[in-house]
Amino acid sequence: MRKLIWTLAVIAPMIGSAARAEDTIKLGYIDPLSGGGASVGEGGLKTFQYLAEEINAKGGILGRKVEIVPFDNKTNPQETLVQAQKAIDAGVRYITQGNGSSVGLALEDFVTKYNTRNPGKEVLYFNYAAVDPAMTNEKCSYWHFRWDASSDIKMEALTNYIKDVASIKKVYLINQDYSFGQSVRSDARKMLTAKRPDVQIVGDELHPLLKVTDFSPYIAKIKASGADSVITGNWGQDIALLLKAAADAGLKVNWYTYYAGGAGGPTAIKQTGLDHQVFQLTEGFANSGHQPAMDYEKAFRAKVNMSLWYPRAVNEMRMFKAAAEKANSVEPVKVAAALEDLKLEVLDGGTGFMRKDDHQFFQPIYISSFGKLAANEPFDEENTGWGWHLVTKVDTPQAMVSTTCKMTRP
Amino acid sequence: MVHECAVLELIVISSLNGVLFGMLLFLLSSGLTVIFSMMGVLNFAHASFYMLGAFFGFQLTKWIGFWPAFVLAPLLVGAIGMVVERYGLRNTHKHGHVAELLLTFGLAFAIEEIVSMIWGRSPVDYRVPALLDFPAFTIFSTNYPAYKIFMLAVSVVIFVALLLVLKRTRVGLIVQAALTHPHMVGHLGHNVGRVFMVVFGVGSALAGLAGVIAGPALVTQSDMAASLGPILFVVIVFGGLGSLPGAFVASLVIGLVQTFAVALNGSLASVFGPLDSPGGPSALSDIWNVTIAQVAPIIPYLLLVIILIVRPMGLMGTRES
Amino acid sequence: MTTATTSVSGPAANAAGENMRFYGVWLVGVIVLVVLPLVFSSGGSLTSFSLIGIAIVFALSYNILLGQTGLLSFGHAVHYGLGGFMACHMMNAVVSHGWPIPLPFIPLFGGLGGLAFAILVSWLMTKRAGTVFAMISLGIGELVASSSLILRSVFGGEAGITTDRTALPRMFGWTFGPQIQVYYLIAFWLVVSAIAMYALTRTPLGRISNAVRDNPERVQFIGYDPHVVRYLAYCFAGFFAGIAGGLAAISFEIANSAYLGAIQSGLVLFATFIGGTAYFFGPILGAILVTYLQLGLTSVTSVWQLYFGIIFIGIVMFSPGGIAGLLMMHRPLLRAGTLWTVIPSYLVAIVPTVALGCGVVLMIETIARYSGGEASAINLFGIAFNPRSPATWIAAAVLVAGGFVIARLTWRRIGEAWDRAATIARDRGYLA
After folding, report:
1. What is the mean pLDDT of chain C?
2. Chain B: partners with 3+ C-beta pairs within 8 Å
3. What pLDDT is recorded for position A115?
4. How large is the ipTM?
5. Which of A316, A321, A372 has the alpha carbon at shortest distance from A61?
6. Is the pLDDT of residue B321 over 50?
7. Of B26, B88, B220, B256, which has the most beta carbons under 10 Å away?
8. Co-location of A220 and A123 in the same domain
9. Do B125 and A270 make contact, defined as CB atoms within 8 angstroms?
C-alpha cells in the first residue's frame, strides 16, 4: 500500500510534466475552477476558450493555433504558484489570471523571479482582472501586462463624472477592509476633494471582507449621515447583502459600485427593486450602443450562454495577436517589447493603448445603471429582465492616472 | 437637542437591529445546542444542514410555494439528519467524540460540493414570499420589513417550544436525563439509540428551518455554510454547552455587541488622540488606528476565548464538555 | 500505541534485529529523499515533492498534539503561518542588514516564531483538554487570521510579505534559485525535524504526554501536572509547525494570510487523521496522500472537494486508525504467518470493490458535468463516457448497485478470513 502511494505520488507529477510538441501557443489560464470562486473562474475560462476558437478559426496567431490550458488555483496565492510551475512544465509561456489581487501580486512576483532565474525561458503574465494599483506602481514588473482598469483609474473616471453632476452633495464610502477596498476609499477621498471640494464625505466605512451577514447597522449609519450617494468597491455577497439591507430599510441613495454586475449581483439588485439606482464602472457592457460590440455580445451569448463579463479579455487577445504579428514572433520577450505603447481599437469603441511606463492598458470607461430596459437595449442580465443602461462614457484621456513605477527592463 | 435625538435614534435602531440579528443567530444555533447538549457531538455539518434547508426551501418554493416549503424542507433536512445519525454517527460513536466530529467535518465538505453540483455556485434567486414583502413599521424613517419580524417571531416560538418540551414533557425529561446519565436511561428501558436519532433529526430540522427562513433574507449560495459555521460554535460555547437559555442569551449578546460595535465608530486614536510614531506605520499604529467597526466580526471570537479562559462552562452552562 | 510498544510486545522480538530494521527504515527514507529528484527532475515534480516535504513536517508537528497528547486543535495553522511570516521578515532583514545568516538557517527562525506564539498563548489554552481546548483553538485561529488583515505593517495585508531567497548569503556556493536546491534544503530539514520529533516521542515528556492523553487524572496522581505537560507538548508542536511554515516561505518566497487560515488548519487535521494518529509514520502517509490528492485531483476533476469528503468519511467510519492503522493491523498476522490466509479473500474483494468505486466516480462525474452544462466526455480508464447519454447513467447505476451488493458479500468473507487468521495469531501469541 505504502509503495503504491509512493509510486502514484511520483508518477503523476511526471505525467503532467511530459513535454509536448511546440506547435500550439499555450495560454495558461490560472483561476479558481473549484470552491467558492469557481462560478467566476469558469465564466472567464469559457470566455477565453471562445476567444481562442475565434482566433483559431481565422488562422491563429502567425499560423499557430492558440490553446487555453486551464489550471485551478482555488483563489489561493500559494496554490497559484504551484499551478504556474505546472503550467510552465506543460510548455506554457503565457499566463493569464484575474481573480484576486493577492493572487495577482504573488503571480507577478513569481513571474519576475522566474524570468530572472531562467533567462531564455521567459514567461509573460497577462492580467485581465486583478486591479490592485500596486501591480503597476510600486510592485510593477516588465513581465506583467494589465488590461483591466485598475481601481484608481476607475475612480478617476468616476470622479471626472461626479465633477459635473451637481446633485451629488453628500457621499458615503463603504468598502471591504483589504487592499482593494482601501485603495478605493483613499482614491475616492483624494480625488473627490481635489475635483469637488464642495462635496462632503459624510462617512467612510471599512468592514471585514465577506464576514458580515447583517448590513442593517451600516445602512442605519448611512441613513443617519444624510448621504445622497454611496461609493463602494464591494463584491460578491458583500454587495448583495448591502443592497438587500438598503432596500429593506427603504434607503434611497445612488450606489456607485465597481462590481455590482458580478456573478449573482444582477439577481440581487432585481430582488431589491432598486431600479436605476445602482451604477457600475466597466470598460464595456452589453447595451453600450456600439454596434460591433453589440453584435459580438449577441454571438457570444448565443454560443456560450452567458453575458460577456470581460470585454477586456477580447481586447487582451486581440492585442496579443497584434503584438505577435508586429514582432513577427511568439517569443515572449519579443511580444512583450511589441506590446509596449501598442494601440488598439477596443471592443466597445474608442482607442486604448498599453502604456510603456507601467504596462497598464488605458481605455474608455463606461458608467451604466441597472434597471428596466429601454426599447433599444436588447440585453438583460441573469434572466432578470433588467439590464445595464448607458449613463456616460468617460473617454481615455479622462481615465488616466500617473504611475510611480520604476520599471527594470531586461 | 439635535445631538441627543441622533444618539437616541442610534441606540434604538442599533438595539432593534441587534435583537433581530441575535434572533437569527439563535434560530441557527438552537438545533446545534440541542444536538450538542444531548449527544456531545460538535456537529460541523450543522451549517451545511442549514444550507440544505435554504436550498430545499428555494427549490420547493419554486415548485409548490413558500408555505408548503416552510413545512416540508425542515422535515426533509431532519430526515437526512436521522439517516446521518443512524448510518454514520452511531457506527462512529465507539471511536469517541473526535471521530464523530471528524465525520461531520467530512460531511460538511461533501454537502457543500453536492449542493454546488446541483444548484451551481452562483447565488440563487430565493425571494421573500409576497405575503410578507412589506414594511411592518417605520422608526426614525427606517423601515423594518415584515419578514424580519416574522423571523423574530419564529425564533421566539422555537425558543419557548423547545424550553417547554425539554422542561415540561416526558420526552424532555428523558432527554434531560440522558444528557447526564445516559447509561441509567438505557437501563430504565429507553432506547437511547433511538432517542439520539430523533434528537439529531430534530436538531437538523431546526437547522433546515433556519435555512428556509434565512435564505431569502441572506444570500442563498453554496458557500453560505462555510461563512456562518464558526460563529454558531461561538454562540453555543459562549452560552454554555447544553444550555438552551444560554444559547438564547449568547445570541442576543453577540447580535447586540456586533451591531453596537458597528455603530460606535471609535478607535484608540479617536479616544487618546493620534499616535506619535516617528518610525512610520508599525503594528502599534495599526492597532491604534483600527476602528471598533472594523473589528466587529472578530469580537465574538475574542469573547469566546475570554469566556472559555475565565469560565470554561460558558455563560449559563453547568458542565465543561 | 506507538511503534515501540507494538514491537516489544512480540515475544519473539529480536532486539538487535529490530534495531537494524529500525535504522534501516530511516536510512531507506533518506536515500529515497536523495534519489527522488534525480529520477523526476521536472520543475512541477520538484515543487510537488517540496510541498509534500513541508506537509510532512507540518502533519508530524500536528500529531504531537492530536496523536501524542490527545489535543484536537482547529488552529494549528496559526503557528505554521506565523513561522512563515517570521521567516520572510528574517530573510528580508538579513538582506537589508547584511547579516551573515545563510538561507538554510532560516527555517529555525520560522520555528522560533511558531514557538514564541505558542509560549505566549498556550498556557491559557492548555488549561483544559477536550472540547474546551478545541473551541479555544478555533477562536484563536479565527482571531489571528482576522488580525493578520488588520495589522498590515506586520502581515502585509492581502498581498502578504514577499522575499527573495537568492539574495541571502550563500552556503556551499548554492544560490537556492533553482527548485532542486530548495528541495534538498527542505529534505534536510524534513529529516532533521522527523528525527527530532521521533526522539521526542521516546523522551519521558513524550511518554507522559501519552499518559495525559489517555488518563490525565492518573498522571496527576503520580505527581505530574497535566497542564504543564500539555503546555510543553503544545510548544513543541508550535515550534515544528513554525519550521514547516518557514520552509513554505522559502519555497514560495511569500507569506500571506492564507497560511494562517482555517483551510490550512483543516488540511493538516485531515492529513494527520487520514494517515493515522496512533503511529509515528501515520501523518507522513497522510501528508503525502493529501498533498498528492490536492495537487493531482484538482487537475482531474472540479469536484475534488467531494472526493475529499467521501475519503474522509470513509476513513472515519471504516478505519478510524487511518491508513497506518490499517497497515499495522496486518503486522501480527504477518508475524504469525497467517497473513496468506487472508490474502485470497482480499483478491476476491478487489474486483467488486473497484467496480463500486468506479461506479461512484462515474456517477459523481456524470452528475457534475450534467448539471454544469458541460458536454465533455468523462474519460475513465481510457473509456469515454458521454454524460448526456442514458447508457452512462445506466452503467453508473449498475456499477454502484451491483458493485455494492457483491462487494458486501466479499467484505463479509474478508471479515471471516480475518477472524480465523487472528484467532490463530492469538493462539501463537502475536496478538493481544
Report:
1. 86
2. A, C
3. 94
4. 0.84
5. A321
6. no
7. B26
8. no
9. yes
